[in-house]
Amino acid sequence: MSIVFDEKSRFFSLMTENTEYQIRINELGMVLHTYYGKRVGGFDMSYLLKELDRGFSGNPYECRNKRGISADTLPQEYSTDGAGDYRVSALSLCLSNGSGTADLRYKSHEIISGRDELKGLPYVRAEKDKVDTLKIYLEDKVAGLLVVLAYQVFEEKDIISRYSVIKNESDGDIFLNKAASACVDFMGKDLDLIHFHGRHAFERQPERRRVTHDICRIGSKRGTSSHHNNPFVILCDRNTDEWNGDSFGVMLMYSGEHAQEIEKDQAGTIRVVSGISDDHFRWKLSKGEEFTTPEVMLAFTDKGLSELSFLFHRIIRENICPGQFRDIKRPVLMNNWEGTYFDFDDDKIMEIADSAKEAGCEMLVLDDGWFGARNDDHAGLGDWVVNRNKIKKGMDKIADHVESLGMKFGLWFEPEMVNEDSDLYRAHPDWALTDPDRKPVMARDQLVLDMSRSEVVDYLYESISGILNSAKISYVKWDFNRSLSNVFSRALPADRQGEVAHRFVLGTYSLMERLRERFPDVMIEGCSGGGGRFDAGIMFYSPQIWCSDNTEAINRLKIQKGTSYGYPISTIGSHVSASPNHQTGREVPLMTRAIVAMAGTFGYELDPRLLSSQEKAMIRDQIKTFNKYYDLIQKGRYLRLSDEQDEQYYTSWGFVSEDRSEALVSLVVTDVRANPEVMYVRLRRLDPDAMYEVDNCISSNAQVPENGVYSQKTEGEIYSGAALMNAGYAFDPMFGSYPAIQLHFRRIY
Ligand code: GLA
Asked: Bridge-partner residues for 15, per DSSP?
């Protein structure tokens, strides 16, 4: 059992292979956090708690003269408002008498083998793992409140997941103003915070700064997890780097409005509270009702950021993404969006399919514009019927044609949206989220459907199912192209409007779940104007997500690197698009674009009819290369091999198989120089005693000018693992426009 309770000292120890999390119940029944870090073998870490009188930190009534006991200074497992803790709280509410106080004390606990599945919310699946659950029941007898703190311990994965359940056992209504998933207090640590900010077409850029005596809030009030702040934060020692040092990861599995609050208190304790954002949240709990928060994953390692990433990559790939798409080879796709935008008909799409086939693609995805009266982005959303003016022969004919070529066929949807200019909106204007008597905020000329209403979800389920049943469709691209505003449901009373933002997310999850149940072999690729809903919650339903609307390879280096801190390569949708690029106008060689896109799910997004036969041949080879290393890329350990300093010149990354028998290393020169330095890239996680041969090399050296020497004769080179790890591979200088190279190393003895 990975969870131990010591009756005498009343402390819990939650142990994974390398980490330990401890909780102590003090004499008043306060549930205190004592330790999270490297495994300490069950040794009671309560000695770390010091009961010091800090003044102006009040004491529970029972021990009003023991001034060191204060909710304000002791580390808490689930902090509340009103009972003397002045730091960021996890729970904030209003009781039926108007009081805002919640004072939770230990009631009982259970230690269970296995875990509960959350209904309607994503969670870390137990799969074949050994999982133990600790449930601590806390109560506030005066308020009539029961809170369950659930901890799932994934021993072999070094992950602990948490969620909370709040139950109204009083006779009146309780309003929750905030109900976070977790609160973790770190004592005695001077930590840096790394979070991932961004914007449309430039998502998940890491920003690192020291945690200071303020409250830092990383969150979204846009209705989705957002391009702007990802629900994933890292806290690490100030000197932690990729390969060394302590780091803690907090990843919320939620696709809606979220907040990660980080506060350093008067005594230097650093608190992290993670959960649904309280900006638009006010949940009415009637007598007997309960509220379950989303789940959050916690990880710790003392081996640097690379290992922390690995822990999240593994759990997401193996325990969160839907099972059947985890291990099967996913097809290399051709998407028509940047190739045609809205300008297509069925003949053109079939021609594109033919050319995509010639280039070696395995799936054709028909993007936006095939339905309703959708000829541009002003009309048609919500009308999930085939536009017979464009698709004259019918969707089944396109699908049959694509299948006859030996490819799969996929289709784009944007289920949660509606245009004013649509039959759906004309029939049901009240199905859109809008304020009464007020013109709504428009974005991309569209509105958002009220997913809190079951009739809306039912309509979408039926209409999308109708399309999926009408043709051989193997894949759905599920888009979401605006932030929420005017979050008002015509179906809920005034005192429940604060529930809409969360009910919206639950509605989306339920639609995804129902469609997945009915069409288990249809893979959903998530999308939200690129990576605006790139989170571990949506990954429970869709194993890959379009990472960014920015398809430009040099920009993508940064976007994909930032994304890789939390999320596995197998989730990162990445395509080769045309050059000059549509977002930046930059020209990048085809091979460089492919090498960058191979650090993802890999596909193409251009008009293949415009490719020369030489380009088609190159693409066929690129797809062969990707497929050859598919398992290594999707399941191997991903390593960020260049640091900030290197990246002024080049970016490098790699994959190493778990058994260390092979590695794939890629490098892109982003700032080509005259008379440049040699690029020494240290590989990691190889077997130091083994010998490795470079048995495959692809590069863009076709771009090398006549007098520029690219001398590297890579294939057949042999190195020891120790040499490659300690001194590094010596990449010769490369010239031309954004040159790139990818080497495969195989262990030979
Ligand atoms: C979003 C997506 C794109 C494309 C368009 C279609 O921006 O991210 O890939 O599907 O919508 O409108």
From this structure: 20
